Backbone:
């Protein structure tokens, strides 16, 4: 009986049948600015200048899929209705829907944002003809049935931002029909500055392997380090700063959203517990400076400019928001008699399809855990299955190689 140590590869398993192819008074009518008492103004002005050296500077709310309510200015959230004729502080009410209006209540995802300026204010979007190695149309690629292995990508010597450093590895389906997913790698050594991005095609599940990502979103800030993951849902604007050379993995989910797997006979607790998922608190910047926006839409990249900071949401409530999770909090289940359980027992997040038990994507990890089965060969068994797997190391050694 042995204890496996320092093991945490990531497995992305794709659904079968589709193989991988490789803020104090009314807003000013002229500027849209917000007037505040001096004390509040000073607090907001310093909010963006706090030390960002550790997670202690970041504030979060916990609970996967909860209905959250958060405000950076006291009283910024309307009381009793979502879209009053005049919002507190002269803010603009804006609903961000992650599902259809008529999706069942248990599956419906949306948030109400109260912002200094509405997102509709921007110059016309123009297509970017050549945007690196980020792909989405996997139906146009040829699937290869061979097992493949890659060396870790080298972080470039030239300044490269998170968005510029995304390179597609494989995928299935595409965003036009909202089916399948894409798997990408990213490398970065420069922050995005006054550039923001939003993806209309799918959710980004980001898995850092090296380097800390400081992600500012419309809903607030997330600090995501190796051993952690984050999910940025479709349509949410964000910008990524890095602390030195960084690289990692991205799963882009074209259909639906990630959710926690059902536990079945495991019971009420175990695997990834809902309380360990962290969501940002509202934090906003009110400034009149030009920003560049990139939008991935229909597999293509578009760009535009805005004359204000896009991160101007002073308050929000709802259940559609970015979140992060520390993989070290995963509560493993395992066999205590004989044989290895199927790897699905290590599922952190899943994206189900209309077929019961079949997922568009399962995000699975193999973390440090006791492996103590009797009379059982310690590495996992050989297997062939109807799912396509993409595996990536975060740290340690892969189970079957130890």
Residues:
């Amino acid at each position: 009986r042995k204890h496996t140590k320092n093991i945490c590869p990531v497995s992305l398993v794709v659904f079968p049948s589709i193989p991988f192819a490789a803020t104090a008074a009314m807003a000013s009518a002229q500027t849209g600015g917000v007037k505040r008492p001096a004390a509040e103004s000073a607090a907001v002005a310093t909010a963006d200048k706090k030390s960002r050296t550790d997670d202690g500077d970041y504030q979060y709310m916990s609970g996967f899929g909860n209905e959250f309510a958060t405000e950076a200015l006291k009283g910024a959230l309307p009381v009793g209705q979502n879209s009053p004729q005049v919002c507190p502080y002269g803010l603009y009410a804006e609903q961000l829907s992650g599902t259809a209006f008529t999706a069942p209540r248990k599956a419906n995802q949306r948030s109400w944002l109260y912002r200094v300026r509405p997102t509709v204010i921007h110059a016309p979007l123009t297509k970017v003809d050549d945007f690196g190695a980020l792909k989405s149309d996997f139906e146009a690629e040829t699937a290869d049935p061979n097992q493949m292995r890659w060396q870790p990508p080298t972080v470039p010597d030239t300044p490269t931002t998170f968005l510029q450093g995304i390179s597609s590895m494989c995928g299935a389906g595409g965003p036009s029909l909202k089916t399948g997913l894409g798997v990408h790698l990213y490398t970065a050594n420069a922050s995005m500055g006054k550039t923001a991005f939003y993806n209309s095609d799918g959710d980004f599940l980001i898995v850092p392997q090296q380097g800390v990502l400081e992600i500012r979103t419309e809903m607030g800030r997330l600090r995501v380090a190796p051993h952690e993951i984050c999910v940025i849902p479709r349509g949410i604007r964000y910008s990524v700063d890095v602390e030195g050379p960084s690289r990692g993995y991205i799963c882009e989910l074209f259909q639906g959203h990630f959710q926690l797997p059902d536990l079945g006979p495991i019971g009420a607790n175990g695997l990834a517990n809902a309380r360990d998922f962290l969501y940002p608190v509202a934090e906003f910047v009110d400034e009149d400076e030009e920003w560049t926006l990139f939008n991935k839409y229909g597999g293509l990249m578009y760009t535009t400019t805005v004359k204000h900071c896009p991160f101007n949401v002073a308050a929000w409530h709802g259940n559609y928001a970015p979140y992060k999770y520390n993989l070290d909090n995963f509560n493993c289940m395992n066999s205590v008699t004989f044989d290895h359980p199927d790897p699905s027992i290590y599922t952190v997040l899943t994206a189900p399809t209309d077929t019961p038990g079949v997922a568009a994507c399962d995000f699975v990890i193999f973390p440090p855990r006791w492996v103590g089965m009797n009379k059982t060969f310690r590495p996992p068994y050989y297997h062939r299955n109807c799912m396509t797997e993409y595996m990536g190391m975060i740290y340690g050694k892969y189970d079957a190689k130890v």
User: Anything to note?
Assistant: The longest strand covers residues 179-188. The radius of gyration is 22 Å. Residues 38-47 form the longest helix (10 residues). Residues 1-9, 11-18, 23-53 have pLDDT under 50 and may be disordered.
